């Protein structure tokens, strides 16, 4: 497992040093910036490794090693401007019983399908028919946006909406009274 942060979109900061962190359960991790190695480091148990990296657009990548064999890879790419939203529902159908819900993850993407992690896009949600929006979220612990509103700002290029549908259920299952 490996996760590197932060995103790699820092327009106007070319050459400025950005601290890159990598969380991993590998023995060692090597960081690369545009294919140039920034060094290999041992990962302390239950911790992370970090490198100071000068920002230049492109790819910051981490390769994880266990017993000197590469076992993991992850990267962050500089993205273009946001051009679309992609929706990723956790299911294709929900029961119309007022209890079943669908969670739809939303990604703000550039023209190449990469998530634009620094896009502060406000996403407006709507549903049709007997469906209703139950809430929206973005994972930002500092957000003061209303959870039950039909819109949410993207955080890290992502947000989500939860919806339900009222109506008849073919098995006769209905919401509990009260």
Task: Report what the structure shows.
Strands 4-3-6-7 form a four-stranded antiparallel sheet, with no helix packed on it. A four-stranded antiparallel sheet has the order 8-9-13-11, with no helix packed on it. A three-stranded antiparallel sheet has the order 1-2-5, with no helix packed on it. It is elongated. It is 0% helix and 48% strand. It is mostly beta strands. 20% of the residues are buried. β6 and β7 form a beta hairpin.
Key attributes of the depicted protein:
single chain; 178 residues; mainly beta; Immunoglobulin-like; 2 domains; four-stranded antiparallel β-sheet; 0% helix
Radius of gyration, in Å, reads 21 Å
> Which class of secondary structure composition applies to the elements?
mainly beta
Order of strands side by side in the largest beta sheet? 4-3-6-7
Q: Count the domains.
A: 2
Q: Give unreliable regions as ranges.
A: 174-178
CATH level-4 homologous superfamily of the largest domain: Immunoglobulins
* Outline: elongated
Examine the secondary-structure arrangement and name the CATH architecture of the largest domain: Sandwich
Brief summary:
Helices cover 0% and strands 48% of the residues. The chain has 178 residues and is mainly β.
Explain the layout of strands and helices.
Elements: E1 2-5, E2 17-24, E3 28-33, E4 36-42, E5 48-54, E6 59-66, E7 69-77, E8 84-89, E9 101-109, E10 122-124, E11 131-137, E12 151-153, E13 158-165
Antiparallel strand pairs: 1-2, 2-5, 3-4, 3-6, 6-7, 8-9, 9-13, 10-12, 11-13
């Amino acid at each position: 497992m490996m996760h590197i942060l932060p995103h790699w979109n820092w327009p106007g900061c070319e050459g400025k040093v950005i601290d890159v962190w990598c969380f991993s359960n590998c023995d060692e991790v090597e960081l690369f910036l545009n294919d140039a190695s920034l060094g290999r480091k041992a990962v302390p148990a239950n911790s992370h490794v970090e490198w100071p990296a000068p920002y230049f657009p492109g790819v910051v990548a981490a390769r994880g090693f266990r017993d000197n064999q590469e076992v993991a890879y992850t990267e962050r790419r500089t993205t273009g401007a946001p051009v679309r939203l992609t929706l990723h529902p956790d299911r294709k159908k929900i029961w119309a019983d007022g209890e079943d819900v669908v969670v739809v993850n939303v990604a703000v993407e550039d023209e190449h399908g990469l998530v634009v992690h620094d896009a502060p896009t406000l996403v407006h949600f709507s549903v049709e028919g007997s469906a209703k929006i139950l809430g929206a979220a973005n994972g930002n612990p500092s957000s003061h946006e209303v959870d039950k509103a039909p819109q949410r700002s993207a955080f890290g290029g992502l947000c989500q909406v939860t919806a339900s549908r009222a109506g008849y259920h073919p098995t006769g299952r209905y919401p509990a009274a009260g």
